[in-house]
Specification:
3 domains, about 220 residues, alpha+beta, Thrombin, subunit H, six-stranded antiparallel β-barrel, single chain
């Protein structure tokens, strides 16, 4: 009986030691992890890195707009609703800045939208990827851009994939602003004209935009 109790106590002691060691290992890992993720200097440094990257992106956006030849005002995008992501944006320029309905809005590549509503300190922009109607031209052919497609193209026009799409002056916009290029071409249901699907300028990352002023 004494031998059995002795062995039992020994096993119990070994078990306690084992549990203690495991607990120490787990606990030390937790402490190291805690210290690592609660090092306020480290957190502050990482925060500054993120802020610096955001500022650099903004500076790059503004710098890229300097390639635009027309007279323009730079505006900052202040609202972009996730539910209207490809339809509209709101910028921090308005009637106080001489912005008017129908003004063209560009990024460094070309047209990304049209001003459709103006308040004193902000303006609402319909993006070219929305269902807003924009008169465009491809070579010598004119059509109507809406929701990424150009309709009303002449049936006999010689169009092909890769052809560049530009603004026309029929909608009151400055002429020959780049919009995108043809991805595919088809005939409409009545076989009276052609329809072209367009690869538009990328409008995912819009921090700053340029509004063309004095065009009318």
């Amino acid at each position: 009986m004494v031998i059995y109790l002795h062995r039992k106590n020994k096993l119990l002691i070994n078990l306690i030691i084992f549990i203690s060691i495991v607990g120490l290992i787990i606990g030390s890992g937790y402490i190291i992890s805690y210290l690592k993720y609660n090092d306020y200097d480290l957190v502050e440094l990482e925060t500054l890195k993120v802020q610096n990257k955001l500022l650099q992106d903004e500076l790059d956006s503004i710098e890229n707009l300097k390639t635009i030849k027309e007279d323009y005002i730079i505006g900052k995008v202040i609202i972009r609703n996730i539910h209207e992501f490809y339809n509209e944006i709101v910028i921090d320029l308005g009637s106080d800045n001489q912005i008017k309905e129908g003004d063209a809005v560009l990024n460094s590549e070309g047209l990304i939208g049209i001003v459709y509503k103006v308040e004193r300190n902000k303006s609402y922009i319909k993006l070219s990827s929305s269902d807003y109607n924009i008169s465009v031209k491809i070579n010598d052919t004119y059509g109507n851009l809406s929701a990424g497609k150009i309709t009303m193209l002449n049936k006999y026009s010689d169009l092909k994939e890769g052809d560049k799409v530009y603004t026309s002056n029929y909608s009151g916009l400055p002429e020959n602003i780049y919009i995108g290029e043809i991805e595919s071409i088809s005939f409409d249901n009545e076989n009276l004209g052609q329809t072209a699907k367009i690869k538009l300028i990328d409008n995912h990352n819009l921090n700053y935009v340029a509004v063309i002023v004095g065009a009318k």
